[in-house]
Every structure is written in structure tokens, then in C-alpha cells.
Amino acid sequence: QVQLVESGGGSVQAGGSLRLSCTASGTVFSIWFNAMGWYRQAPGKERELVATITSSSSRNYADSVKGRFTISRDNAKNTVYLQMDSLKPEDTAVYYCTLGQVTWGKGILVTVSS
Question: What's the sign of the alpha-carbon dihedral 72, 88, 3, 26?
């Protein structure tokens, strides 16, 4: 089994940046060969895709974050990152890391103030 733990969240003003990390433990080799992703859930809204990255580092982004967010992975560190720049208040949400939408982290709060 794989456990995912997110870190790096917090509060920032609009226009600022944060970098989220998702570190895997347990049967970590499974993340090397599978897609990883970040999703988010804002208050009163459904969980939505933010970005995904395949084992070959092909990336996919939600339209709302294209050009502002960058997903990357470091298999040697069993970690997936989400660099978030030019943050907007509407980016406020709990961000979740996932392995193939099967295994999920507990989530981490990102708050962007105007």
C-alpha cells in the first residue's frame, strides 16, 4: 500500500506563490509507473482536477490554472510537486494528492486572500 502526505499549504495574498509537495511512503515503487495528480475542493463545491502527470511526465492542467501552476515529479524522492504562482482568491481550497485516483492524501488547505 501507498500512503500520500501533502505539505506546503498555507495562507498567501493574491498574486503570491506556494509550492505543494506530496510524498509517498509504503510501496513507493507503484508511484514510479503510475500517473499522479492534484485535485482541489473549495467550500460548497465538488472536488475538481487541478493537474496530472504521467509516469513519462506528460502533464495535463485544468483550464483555470494553465500558465500559473506547474506539476512535476521526482521519483528519487517519491514526491510530486505543485508549484502555484499568480494565485487568486478563487484558488482557495483543500488540495489533495492522488495516485491514479485510487489512493488519496488527507488534503492540505490553501487560502488566498485578496
Answer: positive
List phi, psi (to 5°) of 36.
Answer: -120, 160
Identify the residue whose cell numbers are 487560502: 111
Q: Give the integer Cα–Cα distance in Å for 66 and 3.
A: 28
Q: Which backbone phi and psi does 30 adopt, to 5 degrees?
A: -65, -25
d(CA 38, CA 99): 9
Per-residue pLDDT at 78 exceeds 80: yes
Contact of 18 with 40, CB cutoff 8 Å: no
Alpha-helical regions (H) of the chain: 29-32
Q: What is the pLDDT of residues 5-47, one digit of tens each?
A: 999 999 999 999 999 999 998 877 777 888 999 999 999 999 9
Mean per-residue pLDDT over the chain, rounded:
95
The pairing of beta strand 48-53 with beta strand 36-41 = antiparallel
